[in-house]
Write a structure and sequence with these properties.
Layout: H1 3-28, H2 32-36, H3 40-43, H4 58-80, H5 86-107, H6 122-138, H7 142-150
Helix pairs in contact: 1-4, 1-6, 4-5, 5-6
Length: 151
């Protein structure tokens, strides 16, 4: 695996997890439900009702999100190519959020979706996907590097 995929994954996982934690705290008063709901594939819908962060629900939730971001990082890396032009980088980056959301929620069996709909509104989910995309783009310095190249 390339270093770029790993940095995209790290950036995307950190940003999306940060958004999940912050939105969970705002919406439910606790950090747990937003992270824990992603473990619904393992513990069922009741995972979203667990208020506290714990090893049983939170660790699988965080790991599942990181694995999903790794999956999307691989596709993002392939879509960008080795030396993307600014137009290609912007186009692929703009499409990444909507495409990943569409596939996650329309083409994936319900049990293996992110589960965020158990806790969050559609607007919140869009914010989480946006944060993932920003983190993935910033992770390897793609935005910074391409911006400097154009100046």
């Amino acid at each position: 695996m390339s270093k770029r995929i790993w940095t995209m994954t790290l950036g995307g996982a950190l940003m999306s997890s940060g958004a999940v934690l912050a939105l969970s705290r705002i919406r439910t008063g606790s950090y747990g439900p937003g992270v824990n709901c992603t473990a619904h594939w393992l513990h069922g819908k009741q995972a979203a009702k667990v208020k506290q962060l714990d090893f049983r629900h939170s660790l699988p939730g965080i790991a599942t999100n990181a694995a999903a971001v790794f999956f999307w990082s691989w596709f993002y890396d392939k879509a960008l190519g080795k030396n993307p032009t600014i137009i290609r980088a912007v186009t692929v980056t703009v499409l990444l959020g909507p495409v990943s959301c569409l596939i996650d929620y329309k083409a994936t069996p319900k049990r293996f979706t992110p589960g965020w709909e158990l806790v969050f509104s559609r607007a919140d989910m869009a914010t989480i996907y946006l944060s993932m995309v920003i983190g993935m783009a910033l992770g390897p310095g793609l935005i910074r590097t391409k911006t400097r190249a154009c100046l």
